[in-house]
Amino acid sequence: MKKPPLTPEHCAELLHGAKAIVALTGAGISTAAGIPDFRGPKGLYVTRRYDPMKVFEIDSFQRQPEYFYEFSRDFVATANTIKPTFTHNFLARLEQGQRLASVVTQNIDLLHHQAGNKKIIELHGSYSSATCQACGQHFHNLSYAWWERLMAESPTPPVARCPDCHGVLKPDIVFFGEMVHQFAAAEELVAECDLLLVLGSSLQVSPASHLPYLTTAPTIIVSQGEVMLPAAEQRFFVDTDLDGYFMDVAKYLPEVVDC
C-alpha cells in the first residue's frame, strides 16, 4: 500500500530528532536558482545545445578543450550571477545547528559553498580548483570571476590557460572516463547517518545512485518527477517543489526559519 505524502510537519519532526543528517543533492536543488540541468525535459542533453560526449568526455577534452570551454563560457556567465536557493540556505543552517553531518552533491555549481556549508563532498568536482595539463600546477579557491577573466583573455574559442606556462587548465570536474571524488567518504557518511535527505536527484547517475542503499535510516526523497529508488518502509517520497516544501518545513523548525 502506498504511503501518504510526508507532511512538512512530519518532515520537521524527523529533522529535529536527527543528529547526523546527510543530504545527497542533485541538479533539482539548483534549477530554481537558474542553473540549467542536463537531463531534465529542457536540459542541455535533451535540447542538444551541447553534445555531452564532446563537452564532458575526457579524451575529447584532451584533444579539443574548446568544446568544454564553449560550454563553460555560458555556464560560468550564468553561475556568476545566481544566488543559493532557500533549500541551499536551509541545509547551511542545519549544519550550523550541528544537525547536518555533510552535503554530498552531484552538482558542480558551488552553490552549497556560497550558502555557507563547510562539510561538502563534491562527487563530480567543481570549478573551485583546476590543474594545468602541461606543468601540473594546481590552483585552489577559484571563483567564477577568475574563470571569466581567464576565458576573456583567451582567443576565440575560449580556452583557460595556466598563467605561468600557458598550458590548458582543466577544472577539477569529473569527466566521463574519470573516477568520482571522495566516494568512499560519502559511503561512510551515508552508512553512519541517522537521516538521509535526497534532494533534487532522480538517482539515475551511478555511483551516487547507490548511496541510499547503504542506510536503513529514514530517507526523505524530495524531487519532482520519477526517482529511481524503490519504495521501502523507511523511505518517504515527496514529488514537489523543493523550495516551497522546505519553506513549509521551516515553519516547524524555529532554528532555521530565517533562512
What does the average pLDDT come to?
A: 91
Looking at this structure, what is the CATH superfamily of the largest domain? Answer: TPP-binding domain
Count of DSSP strands:
9
Main β sheet profile? 6 strands, parallel
CATH topology value of the largest domain: Rossmann fold
Just name the CATH architecture of the largest domain: 3-Layer(aba) Sandwich
> Which term fits the overall shape?
elongated
Q: Structural class given helices, strands, pairing? A: alpha/beta
Strand order of the largest sheet: 3-2-1-7-8-9
Question: Between the first and last Cα atoms, what is the distance in angstroms?
Answer: 36 Å
Secondary-structure map:
Layout: H1 8-17, E1 21-25, H2 28-31, H3 44-47, H4 52-55, H5 58-63, H6 66-79, H7 86-96, E2 100-105, H8 111-115, E3 120-122, E4 125-132, E5 138-139, H9 144-152, E6 169-173, H10 183-192, E7 195-199, E8 219-222, E9 235-238, H11 242-250
Parallel strand pairs: 1-2, 1-7, 2-3, 7-8, 8-9
Antiparallel strand pairs: 4-5, 4-6
Helix pairs in contact: 1-11, 6-9
Describe this protein's structure.
This protein has helices at 8-17, 28-31, 44-47, 52-55, 58-63, 66-79, 86-96, 111-115, 144-152, 183-192, 242-250, and strands spanning 21-25, 100-105, 120-122, 125-132, 138-139, 169-173, 195-199, 219-222, 235-238. The protein is an alpha/beta fold. The protein has two domains: 1-35 and 88-124 and 182-250, 3-Layer(aba) Sandwich (Rossmann fold), CATH 3.40.50; 39-81 and 129-173, SIR2/SIRT2 'Small Domain' (2-Layer Sandwich). The protein has a six-stranded parallel sheet, sandwiched between helices. Strands 5-4-6 form a three-stranded antiparallel sheet, with no helix packed on it. Strand 2, helix 8 and strand 3 (120-122) form a beta-alpha-beta unit. The chain is elongated and about 55 Å long. The chain starts with 7 loop residues before the first helix and ends in a 9-residue tail after the last helix. The model has no long low-confidence stretch (mean pLDDT 91).
